[in-house]
Amino acid sequence: MVSDIVKEREKYQAMLQIALAEARTGLAEGGIPIGAALFTREGQLLGKGHNRRVQEGDPSAHGETDAFRRAGRQRTYRDKIMVTTLAPCWYCSGLIRQFGIGTVIVGESLNFQGGIDWLHENGTEVIDLHSRECIELLAQYVKKHPEVWKEDIGEE
Predict the structure, then answer these.
(1) Candidates 10, 29, 64, 133; catalytic one
(2) Quick check: is 64 catalytic?
(3) DSSP the chain
(4) What confidence tens digit (pLDDT) does each residue in 106-128 have?
(5) Whole-structure pTM value
């Protein structure tokens, strides 16, 4: 039982590394360092992406949305896992609920809580990995670019 939990956690950490690589790519492009990836329950990568709001001038180009779009159409999403470096905002939480994505793995929710409580309350499995690397990556960005960050989460 304990070994199964450890294996599952290791699988989630490996998935998070893909989302983190996307976040770093977004930062290198001059954007907000938030990455995401959509997987099957077995761990097959379907699509990965990152926040492209700054790069594309598109307010809807969030990391989860980018990964979702790049995964293409799926027959069902209930057995899919969305992995994201940061708790999904309300916009992305709505996408997760709309399509019934069954599990969300969150790198961190310290910098931003988003809609994870709402997702959990509505039947989505939410696992927060409390990744120090995810926390520090976004905290450094927010400190350097508070105006862009506030725009991203819809604050004035």
Answers:
(1) 64
(2) yes
(3) -HHHHHHHHHHHHHHHHHHHHHHHHHHHTTS---EEEEEETT--EEEEEE--HHHHT-TT--HHHHHHHHH---S-STTEEEEESS---HHHHHHHHHHT--EEEES--SS--TTHHHHHHTT-EEEE---HHHHHHHHHHHHH-HHHHHHHTT--
(4) 999 999 999 999 999 999 999 99
(5) 0.95
